[in-house]
Amino acid sequence: MSLTQSNYTQAPPAPPNVMVIFGPNGDLTKRKLIPALFHLSNAGLLPDSFAVLGVGRRDMDDASFRDLMAEHIREHVGAAFDQSVWERLVERIHYMKIDISEGADYERLRVRLGELDTQHGTEGNYLFYTAIPPSLFTRVTGYLGAAGLLQETENDWRRVVVEKPFGQDLESAAALNRELHRTMDEGQIYRIDHYLGKETVQNILVFRFANGFIEPLWNRHHIDHVQLTVAESVGVEHRGAYYEEAGALRDMIQNHLLVLLGFIAMEPPNSFESSAMRDEVNKVLDAVEPLSPEDVLTHAVRGQYGEGNLPGGEKVRAYRASPGVDPQSPIETFAALKLTMDNWRWAGVPFYLRTGKRLAAQCTEIAIQFKKAPTVIFKNTDVERIDPNMLVLRIQPAEGIHMSFGAKVPGQSMGVGTVNMDFCYEDHFGNKPATGYETLIYDCMNGDATLYKHTDTVEKGWEIVQSVMDVWTALPPRDFPNYAAGTWGPATADNLLKNDGRRWRKIKSSG
Ligand code: BG6
Fold first, then answer.
1. Of 194, 200, 239, which is best to mutate to test ligand 1, by the most ligand atoms within 8 angstroms of its C-beta?
2. Quick one: which of 73, 222, 341, 500 has the most CB atoms within 10 Å?
């Protein structure tokens, strides 16, 4: 299982295969998939018998597709770029023009895959990656099935990575599952959430369960509340059309933030095996108290960015002025929720979740605020006003763990200051560049679904956000845009905590 292979540079190369990318010209392919393959190749984890086949409508051939990928690779792998690694990978990258919504074209795809098997020795093992709009998922898998491309034998495997969003709501997620099962077994379906592939997300479990001092404090007796922030300074870029169907709640909360919540709040699993982990995450999601329509009005906040300036000063346009976006769009680019759990460990502890585009920083972190210590012995001194202890698990960037506590200011009077203990991954383990997709792609090639989502986890995620979606759809926003790009979101998000006598942790703007 992946977690035990965290030092994945020591793992063996994946078995021979062709990775077929539907949506080869999209952002995901350029920003994440090809860079992830680069990192895997750099770590010696791709087999020699390997090929990538981009399939799409654009009129390109192998050479022009390779050129296009080459244009972006340096930008996305940064300092890790190595020309010899790229050359090894790029000669395995191919392109085929097909209309993916045209069944007849899949016969040609089957023939082409056979040719690649001969050319690269990929033995008929295919990983189909659906980096396409969700409305096309089942059409593609239906045609793959009809062309016999999802038929496994004893000697070869066929797997499909299904990108998020997995459905638009609970009902459509269930329908999507039914539809996928018509052409393949559950074991062939890999529902991806790339947050599960991030080292620092997996490290939440190691930090919690491999350190004796943490678990006794990890409950309602000692923790006041938890803040989960996934802030992005980027806007919707070229994904306006996709984002108009999604919004922040579907795009980020239903999946990535609930993954973080699951890992922070779960009970210790019996092992890191797929089913043990899944059961514990599911128990957390089951324990989340449903929000009634009235709760939604007080526990959920939405926002949309207007034009503004990024912390570095650059002026950026409003969401509604982005390509592919309706100039009157009601879609939220910011969402914040207050969730509580009805279980023994967490009863009464609020979990505040927030995410947004065009915020003042690019940062994912979990801040755990402990309860204030009784300060009776420090009566009438500064100590009474000291901030409570806070533990921050920093997921990205500058991955690390940060703890704040009070210390005496040297001198005759009883002065106190908040000081920090910081652990930075890069300082200790060096910087291993990764997109979060490396482990997941590698695991899929190896048939390990532990870090992929099972259908019940996806459906529980939808159950949690469904009432919010219902209320937000029924009551279109009247104040959009309600935050300027480059800020921390709408003022109402501050009220979510202020009403409870709390405030969001101040995160440094990234300029
Ligand atoms: C994706 C969302 O799943 O996650 C994007 O669709 C978002 O909108 C991205 O930008 C964030 O991922 P990361 O790894 O950059 O935090």
1. 194
2. 341
Q: Which residue has the higher pLDDT, 499 or 374?
A: 499
Find the 165 Cα to ligand 1 centroid distance in Å.
11
Find the mean pLDDT for residues 408-431. Answer: 83
Euclidean distance between the first and the last CA atom of the chain, given in angstroms as a whole number: 39
Q: Quick one: pLDDT at residue 381?
A: 67
Instruction: Answer with the one of 118, 142, 163 that is the final residue of a domain.
Output: 163
| Whether 148 and 235 share a structural domain | no
Considering the domain architecture, whether residues 114 and 259 belong to the same structural domain is answered as no
Q: Are 364 and 236 in contact (CB under 8 A)?
A: no
Residues 305 and 256 in one domain: yes
Q: State the residue range of the domain holding 418.
A: 196-267+290-447+478-498
Residue 493 lies in a domain: yes
CATH at residue 369: 3.30.360.10
Tens digit of each residue's pLDDT (9 = 90 or more) over 198-218: 888 888 999 999 999 999 999
User: If DSSP codes are grouped into helix, strand and coil, which group holds residue 130?
Assistant: strand
- Verify that 151 and 262 share a domain, yes or no: no
102 lies in the same domain as 220 = no
* 21 and 97 housed in the same domain: yes
Question: Could you write out the DSSP letters of every residue in 9-63?
Answer: GGSPPPPSEEEEEESTTSHHIIIIIHHHHHHHHHTT-S-SSEEEEEEESS---HH
Q: Which of 228-232, 281-285, 379-383, 394-398 has the lowest mean pLDDT?
A: 379-383
* Alpha helices, H only, 249-337: 258-265, 274-287, 293-299
Q: Is 436's C-beta closer than 6 angstroms to any atom of ligand 1?
A: yes
Q: What is the CATH number of the domain that holds 123?
A: 3.40.50.720
Residue 176 near residue 167 (C-beta atoms within 8 A): yes
256, 299, 402, 454: the catalytic one is 256
Residues 225 and 153 in one domain: no
pLDDT, tens digit (0-9, with 9 covering 90-100), for 4-33: 444 444 789 999 999 999 999 988 999 999
Q: Express each pLDDT in 329-365 by its tens digit.
A: 999 999 999 999 999 999 999 999 999 999 999 999 9
CA 267 to chain centre: 22
Each residue's pLDDT tens digit, 221-247 = 999 999 999 999 999 988 898 899 899
144, 220: one domain: no
Number of C-beta neighbours around residue 411 at 10 A: 7
Query: Active site includes 256?
Result: yes
**Domains of the chain: total:** 2
Structural contact between residues 115 and 8, judged by C-beta atoms closer than 8 angstroms: no
Q: Report the pLDDT averaged over residues 150-174.
A: 93
Is any atom of ligand 1 closer than 6 Å to the C-beta of 232? yes
Distance CA 497, CA 352 (A): 8
Res 382: pLDDT: 62
CB neighbour list of residue 7: distance below 8 Å, 6 or more residues apart: none
